[in-house]
Amino acid sequence: MPDETPASSTVARLTSLRAAIVTASGATVPAPRSARHRAGAYESNGAARVSYGAARVSYGDARVEGGRAARRRSPGRTAAPDRTTGGAHRAPSTMPVEAWVAAAKNRPQVLLGTLVAAGLLLTAVPTIPLEDGGSTSVMTAAAEAVGVIEKSERKKPAPDREPEAAAGAPAATRPAEPEPSAPQSTPVVRPTENAPQQVVVPVGDGPFNSRRTTGSPVVMLSFDDGPDPVQTPKILAMLDKYQVKAVFCLVGTQARRHPDLVRQIVEGGHVLCNHTWSHDLKIGGKRANQIKADLERTNAAIRAAVPDAEIPYFRAPGGNFTDRLVKTAYVDGMTSLYWEVDPRDWEHPEGETSEQHVQRIIAQVRKETRPGAIVLSHDFNQPDTTAAYEQLLPWLVENFEVGVPGAEAPEPTPSTPAPSAPEPVPSQTPSATPSDAAATA
């Protein structure tokens, strides 16, 4: 007996399943039909015709009529002998179509269960492995086993072969190397109007690298918020009397109103300082372009009175420096100027008399001034400050070197070397410029 193939095993399992369903349904298999129903009575080469309604099934030549496609019998097969419908041409334990129809009518649940079981079986065993390494479906294997269709010859796939090289061509062609992709350009980070510019401000001892001291033994006096038409000329006269140079931090609106006082300050040898256009206490919180516009407008007002005037310093109103403010001023050529001594001459407490105010200013300056200190004062509408300096200037000159580092030195003159060995020319200190102030202060 030949070995059992996967296809025959599957057919056997399907046959057993159908027999079990028939037994469970209780359907009755009809007895053999009468002689007139035998296949030979119709002269159909032994094929049994089963008629039920409009559908006629042909066994023997495998033809199905009534809307179904005809299936021809394979060549070489001979006619089966005259058998009854219940004879040996049926598979064991099978039943005619009538019995299936009767079972469907009597037990519809059983039929539905049969269909579900068949579907599960097809799902669980979708394919059957073959001896040649291939596979086939369950339905195809069953049809081949009962002889409905012939077994198709399967060819093993040919092994992959390298394509033969053309005559004259090299045995192996090296694939072309991909062209190197262009290097990605590094994004350039551009400063925005809110971001501080990428500048390096020299280290200072005040807020955000501003200057708190002069960086030398010289004590420097500074007067803010002017020029004032009344107090500024008086202070200029006192400074000239004691031969002291000072820094005047000018407000742009005041410089525009009093260009003559701006010229007097410069003619007296004093140093100019930008104090914003309108004494803006919140300028440090503005955008860089707004700060720059304010400082440039103030410088323009000062230079309208004194063309090409040097403005080496900038002071934030209230001393409210920020990193952005200091850097913006430095880019414009100005060193930010803070202070170490603040007598608060601008403050007038309630109940304080003018004489008390003057004495408080004097006491505070004498107490806090030391070599290198920068002293803050105001010449705009501060008569008590002018009165206090009438007593302070003699004391300051007697105890300290007072002035602006580099402000008193004359401009350097070029030396002409002699043909023989030139004599060394002593170096001279230039006038105050942004770079000089940054180096000395």
Notes on the structure:
The chain is an alpha/beta fold and 441 residues long. Helix content is 33%, strand content 9%. It is built from twelve helices and ten strands. The strands form three sheets. Strands 9-8-7-6-5-10 form a six-stranded parallel β-sheet. It has a two-stranded antiparallel sheet with strand order 1-2. Helix 1 crosses helix 4, helix 5 runs parallel beside helix 11 and helix 7 packs across helix 8. It is rod-shaped and about 140 Å long. The N and C termini lie far apart (116 Å). The C terminus is likely disordered.
Arithmetic mean of pLDDT: 73
User: If helices are DSSP runs of H or I spanning 4 or more residues, what is the number of helices?
Assistant: 12
Measure the end-to-end span: 116 Å
What order do the helices and strands follow? Answer: HEEHHEEHEHEHHEHEHEHEHH
Walk across the major sheet and give the strand order: 9-8-7-6-5-10
Total number of strands: 10
β content, as a range?
5-15%
User: Which structural category do the helix and sheet elements fall into?
Assistant: alpha/beta
Helical residues, percent: 25-40%
C-alpha geometry: rod-shaped
- The value of Rg in angstroms is 57 Å
